[in-house]
Amino acid sequence: MRIIDLSSPIDARGWEPDPVVHERMTPAEGARHMSEGMRERYGLELDPADLPDGEFLDLDFVRATTHTGTHVDAPAHYGSKPVYGPPRTIDQVPLDWFHRPGFVLDLTGAGTGAAGAAEVRAAIERTGYAPRPMDIALLHTGADARQGTPAYFAEFTGLDGEATEYLLGLGVRVIGTDAFSLDAPFPHIIERYRRTRDRRVLWPAHLAGRRHEYCQIERLANLAALPPHGFTVCCFPVKIAGAGAGWARAVALLDD
Asked: Which of 87, 98, 139, 189 gives 177 a disulfide partner, CB atoms 3.0 to 4.6 angstroms apart?
């Protein structure tokens, strides 16, 4: 079995709309931190110099949203009053949603904006595969090439409302994308709304989650390495109690 990494990193060195803060405590600093903690909490003394090389363990402190890097959006992310009842948070979503056969839709030629249902149907036809209920749909837009830059936030292909509804109508419950969002870029949506005053253009892919219980995997990577179908996606989200999203190490499993 081959394992193909489909995840983008949480990287404080890259550009983010909500900047990541990553502070690393060295093993020597970790020794002092542990010694001070033992003294304050338990009244126990241990001189850091008594440790081999004066070092204990390193420690990383990361401040980031749960929507940084590859992550899974839970139904709770889309709104508080969906038609199907109280929305589940990321720790409540069934795990069997996230270990399923996958198929890739090539939308690399769609351009910045939102692909429609006709484009999605055509992409499915090109795969030669008939999606089954609970399959995971992956949108290959090529946006991952711009990760870590402002362009990643503003230049990519999302889905419009009809395209999202079409995939959900096939029984798909998890839709993934290598773009920043499953919807069109924020500037594109806002400019279109200001021009049309049509509320249906306001994040329709996300707001479909108020009518259908489903999850998104955003900010995937390396989808170009996958065949159109014939693989399994594994993308279990981190179990953060009460959260609307959780980071995930998404991979594809292919039989040799």
From this structure: 139
